[in-house]
């Protein structure tokens, strides 16, 4: 029997193998094979860890009922643009497609974009709500965010058994609501909502970048970076800048 080349073994190791198959490769003394095995072991361990975390998030949600709505926001801290919230009710029979769903901050922009499409495809129900710059300045950021979350929940076609928010307490809801500290790390539904909110807000800021390329919104998403502050000093304040946020408020005096 012809001995497999290192390249052939690397290709085989792109898939999960049985312990018997692995044992044969572990006896291969070639350095390239052993390096490939170490890479394989790290990848499999990472995948199993991710799946275990996925199962924990599912179990967390299931403890609150069959139809659990996860709610999260994106954009409370920036100096410009809206705050965006999302509410997601996941289909328990279709969650296996969402193993890689995690806190949006832990994912690359490309991963968030890909997962957002999967969430929209496999969710039982979801909504996305925008609270404008004007609403933020009129109400304050906390109230604008909580109002946006309540609107997102009310717009769901599926009435949830329970609503889980990422640390935001909501008042006057018709269904039980629980704020979960670091909820996007504990609940799959909240993590899914965090991805939808983040990708929707990023898309808005990318469009704003096309209208006002001198501000660099596609790079900093409206946060108070040195680049953004310098652009404000050079080009002035636009309608999307939050008047009640510093240093915008002081710059307007």
Provide the fold topology.
Blueprint: H1 6-12, H2 19-26, H3 31-62, E1 68-74, E2 83-90, H4 109-122, E3 123-131, H5 133-139, H6 141-154, E4 162-165, E5 177-179, H7 188-211, H8 217-220, H9 226-235, H10 248-251
Helix pairs in contact: 4-7, 5-6
Description:
It is found in: Cytoplasm. It is a single chain. The chain folds into two domains: 6-58; 68-199, Nucleotidyltransferase, domain 5, CATH 3.30.420. Helices cover 49% and strands 12% of the residues. The chain has ten helices and five strands; from the N terminus they run αααββαβααββαααα. It has helices at residues 6-12, 19-26, 31-62, 109-122, 133-139, 141-154, 188-211, 217-220, 226-235, 248-251; strands at 68-74, 83-90, 123-131, 162-165, 177-179. The protein has a five-stranded mixed β-sheet, with helices on both faces. Strand 1 and strand 2 (83-90) form a beta hairpin. Helix 4 (109-122) packs across helix 7 (188-211) and helix 5 crosses helix 6. The chain is flat. The model has no long low-confidence stretch (mean pLDDT 95).
Cα distance, first to last residue? 83 Å
Alpha-carbon Rg, integer: 23 Å
Count of discrete alpha- or pi-helical segments spanning 4 or more residues: 10
**Helical content (DSSP H or I, runs of 4+):** 40-55%
- The CATH architecture designation of the largest domain is 2-Layer Sandwich
Q: Report the portion of residues in β strands.
A: 5-15%
Q: Based on Cα principal axes, name the global outline.
A: flat
Question: What is the CATH topology of the largest domain?
Answer: Nucleotidyltransferase, domain 5
**CATH homologous superfamily descriptor of the largest domain:** Ribonuclease H-like superfamily/Ribonuclease H
Strand/helix succession: HHHEEHEHHEEHHHH
Largest sheet: 5 strands, mixed
Q: In order across it, which strands form the biggest sheet?
A: 3-2-1-4-5
Uncertain stretches of 5 or more adjacent residues? none
Main location: cytoplasm
Pfam family, one: RNase_HII
Subcellular location: Cytoplasm
Keywords: Coiled coil, Cytoplasm, Endonuclease, Hydrolase, Manganese, Metal-binding, Nuclease
């Amino acid at each position: 029997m012809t001995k497999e080349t290192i390249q052939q073994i690397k290709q085989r190791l792109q898939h999960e193998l049985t312990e018997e198959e692995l044992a044969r490769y572990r006896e291969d003394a070639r350095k390239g094979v052993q390096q490939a095995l170490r890479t394989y072991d790290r990848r499999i361990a990472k995948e199993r860890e991710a799946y275990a975390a996925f199962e924990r998030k599912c179990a967390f949600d299931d403890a609150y009922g069959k139809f659990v709505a996860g709610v999260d926001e994106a954009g409370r801290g920036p100096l410009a643009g809206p705050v965006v919230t999302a509410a997601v009710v996941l289909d328990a029979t279709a969650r296996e497609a969402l193993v890689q769903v995690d806190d949006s901050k832990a994912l690359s922009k490309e991963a968030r974009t890909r997962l957002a499409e999967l969430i929209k495809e496999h969710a039982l129900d979801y909504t996305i709500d925008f609270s404008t710059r004007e609403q933020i300045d009129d109400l304050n950021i906390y109230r604008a965010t909580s109002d946006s979350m309540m609107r997102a929940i009310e717009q769901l076609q599926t009435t949830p058994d329970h609503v889980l928010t990422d640390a935001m307490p909501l008042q006057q809801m018709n269904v039980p609501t629980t704020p979960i500290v670091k909820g996007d790390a504990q609940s799959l539904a909240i993590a899914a909502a965090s991805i939808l909110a983040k990708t929707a807000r990023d898309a808005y800021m990318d469009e704003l970048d096309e209208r006002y390329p001198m501000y660099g919104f596609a790079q900093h998403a409206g946060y108070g970076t040195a680049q953004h502050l310098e652009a404000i000093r050079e080009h002035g304040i636009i309608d999307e800048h939050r008047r009640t946020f510093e240093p915008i408020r002081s710059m307007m005096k």
